[in-house]
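When time allows, look over one protein, given below as sequence and C-alpha cells. The question is which stretches look regular and which look disordered:
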Amino acid sequence: MLNRFSILVATLITGIFMLCQPATATEKTIVFASDATWPPMEFVDEQKNLVGYAIDMVYAIAKEGEFKAEIKNTAWDGIFAGLIAGKYDAIVSSVSITEDRKKNMDFSEPYYTVRQALIVRKDSNAATLADLKGQKVGGQIGTTGYFTIKNNKALEAKSYDEIGLAMEDLNVGRLAAVVCDDPVAADYALKRYQDTLKIVQIIESGTAEQYGFAVSKGNDEVLALINKGLAIIKEKGIDKELQQKWIGR
C-alpha cells in the first residue's frame, strides 16, 4: 500500500513540475520557392537534389537564424505570383533587387552581386550587343537579362522558360547570343559548353545588380529571421566559403 501511495505522489509531483515548465518554442519553418534551373546558384543535380550556392546559403542562414528551411522547386513563370498569393514565404531564385519588384514584395539584405554577361559561340566575331544588330538573342523570360535584350530595339529578343534551353539553342546555332547573370554565364560557357561557347562581354548597364531573398510584402517576421541568419554567416565568412565551393574566384 505504501509503495503504491509513494508512486502516486511521485507521479503527481512530476506532472505538476512539468506543467510549471515554460513551453519549448516551436522552431519556425520558412518555405522558400526556387526555380532550380540557374546553375551554379540553384539547380537540380544528377541525383535529383536541389543544390547550389544559394541553396546552401538558405540552409546556413536557417541554422544561424534558428529556423527550419523548406525549399520547393517552382517554375519561374508564376513564382512571384505564388509569393504574393501566399503559397510560400520567400523566394531563393537569383532574384535581382529592383524598384519595380519592391512594389510587390520585400527583400532581404543583398547576398550576391552580379552583372549581365553576353555569351556567343566561339566561331562568332561579335564582341558586344551592338555587333548583333538584327540578330536573335535569347534570355530567360522575366529576368533582368531578358529585359536587357528586350529594351534594345536593334535586337530580335527571344524568351525562354529556362536559361538552359536558350544555351542549347545558342550551342546549335539557333541564336546569335544569350544574355544572363555572369555566374550563370560562366557555368555554361566555361564548363557545360566550354568547347563551343564563350563570354565576350560583361554588360555594364548602370550599377551592378544585387540578389536578395524575396519575401511576401509586410512579412516582417520572416524577413527578420532571414536577415539575422544572413548577417551571421557573413560575419563568420560562410558566404565566402560557399562562393569558393560553387563559383570559385
Observations:
- Confidence is low (pLDDT under 50) at residues 5-24.
- The chain has nine helices and 15 strands.
- Residues 70 and 159 are 30 Å apart (CA to CA).
- The radius of gyration is 24 Å.
